[in-house]
Write a structure and sequence with these properties.
The structure is a homodimer of 328-residue chains. With 328 residues, chain A is of the alpha/beta class. In chain A, 44% of the residues lie in helices and 15% in strands. In chain A, helix 1 packs across helix 9, helix 2 packs across helix 4 and helix 5 packs antiparallel against helix 10.
Chain lengths: 328, 328
């Protein structure tokens, strides 16, 4: 297996955290890695090869001009390594826009894909995750783009989670086909056609609603990048809110503190399962290569998990599955 | 005070539940009420006056034709009672579209309002609710409509919660003014202008994100009815998910069950505060009258709370505040 290129300069916590995650991944997953960044800032890589890159696209940089002007940026070099056959996948925890832009400009799109989409797996305890896409790459989408997202989402869920016929839903404001915006209605009509699903193995369950996301009703939920991103952040906010509110109650009286000592350890698996760091980040689907976009605040754990996802994507031939799914 | 008209035929649980809530409201809130529906199906109204209406718009009815064809529908008659000065407000727990349509067709719009919007208060423990609008009336919105929603939302928050200068945010996928769809960017630019806020007393805090909804960062969040409805149902789904997941853990071992006996009573205020039935339903803002739309699965409690909100709206002169807020 070709090494997985890791943008070592991305991430709010700095290179040390990324390198720590990479070292753990190299040791435990046995995958070859390639750390891309300023060698002098990486510290001891534990023998992991370094691909030098002198520039960094910061979280605050303008994405479009950053990717074009900073040709020696770590994230750009990571994408190039995939394009040039030097790496099998890229992982970045930096500026999401820069990772998308680099992957798109350096790897290019798969044939038939109008725009790549960000797919985010939402954890559903006791079941496979629900894949939400587009989680933010394209604020405005045509019905045609939504159809491609549905195809790619189904192909991804099939390959990554072994779901034979992923149930794919279109996010709307009612289950009836006539509910939603003009674009959503048009997409609904197009997704009813059997030929749309020939390449991915997915099935269309019609419109779904926000309340279906964390359930086993559906495997893939398709929406535009504006709605998808708002939904994702709403879920994050709701989880944080509930966690904090419950914690406050647990600390409110001596009896509650005592009772919590029994319950908190039992609640930890749920807390861990719902932690964005544990599910390995989002994926950019539709580019000609594997691109994993980890949370900006990524911990070493998140980097470790992202490498795991990248490895699975490569091993499972995900890019070929995606190519097949949107075949024109 | 003129009576508050209650659509007695709306709601999944049937007229008995509505009448029960109405009787409690009459007794405890001391407001005059008017139950609208089929007298023979209402049972003992405890002396509350009945306005006979022979038809019902069902949950499954097509809204547009239902409101036009069923001229003697309870929800239509309730809206007419407000228009004709026989009632001060209407409350419906039936088909949301039918309530909106009846209010719009019978009461008409306030001057300067392109389309009314549904405002839903989201509970924020320890603070005033966050008012989310449009929560589903208009799947597609222009920037001009979003500006009107912002004005009406601020006027509502000021009048209902006594917030002097409601902080109003525009829901988007990043805090920077340049983030979002074309319509959102246009609305952001328009909302920066001071004159927009002259009539409502609101202030613009710029773009906000999904994670801000359940916090004290903002008092009013404006978005199109597609995104707003998806967000609302996502929140409902997340709350249900968390409640069920935590309950499962609490019942998982004998020790957990024992510990829960201490914690559950302490958690109940939070559970009650987050229950949609307790915050009195949504409001249709922008029609020339008070229209409260309660949850379809409304309990007697929800009807009671909805009457309380209607009373506050009438007492607080909300319609005049709204009229002032969008003054052209």
């Amino acid at each position: 297996m070709l090494p997985i290129a890791i943008d070592a300069m991305g991430g709010d916590r700095g290179p040390a955290e990324i390198v720590a995650g990479a070292r753990r991944a190299a040791a435990e997953l046995g995958v070859p890695l390639l750390l891309v960044g300023r060698p002098e800032e990486l510290g001891d890589t534990g023998g992991i090869e370094v691909l030098p890159a002198t520039e960094v696209i910061e979280m605050t940089d303008d994405v479009a001009s950053g990717v074009r002007r900073k040709k020696d940026a770590s994230v750009v070099r990571a994408a190039e390594a995939v394009r040039d056959g030097r790496a099998s996948a890229m992982v970045s925890a930096g500026n999401t826009g820069a990772a998308m832009g680099s992957a798109l400009l350096r790897m290019g799109r798969l044939p038939g894909v109008t725009r790549p989409a960000i797919a985010t797996p939402l954890p559903v305890p006791g079941s496979t995750p629900t894949v939400l896409l587009d989680a933010g790459a394209n604020a405005e989408c045509t019905a045609e783009m939504l159809v491609q997202f549905a195809q790619m989402g189904a192909a991804f869920a099939a390959g990554r989670y072994g779901i034979e016929h992923p149930r794919t839903g279109l996010l709307s404001i009612g289950e009836e086909a006539g509910k939603g915006t003009g674009v959503v209605k048009e997409a609904n009509a197009a997704l009813q056609k059997a030929e749309v699903w020939a390449g991915s193995g997915g099935t269309f369950v019609g419109n779904v609603e926000g309340r279906d996301l964390l359930t086993d009703r559906v495997d893939v939920v398709v929406t535009d990048g504006f709605t998808g991103n708002v939904v994702l952040k709403t879920l994050e906010g709701a989880m944080t809110f509930m966690r904090d509110a419950i914690f406050k109650v647990m600390m409110s009286t001596p009896e509650a503190i005592e009772a919590s000592q029994v319950l908190v350890p039992l609640l930890m698996p749920l807390v861990r399962e719902m932690d964005p760091d544990s599910y390995g980040g989002a994926l950019l689907l539709g580019v000609d290569g594997v691109c994993i976009i980890s949370h900006g605040a990524s911990s070493a754990d998140a980097v470790f998990n992202a490498v795991g996802v990248a490895k699975d994507m490569v091993d499972g031939g995900l890019v070929d599955r995606l190519r097949q799914s949107v075949k024109v």
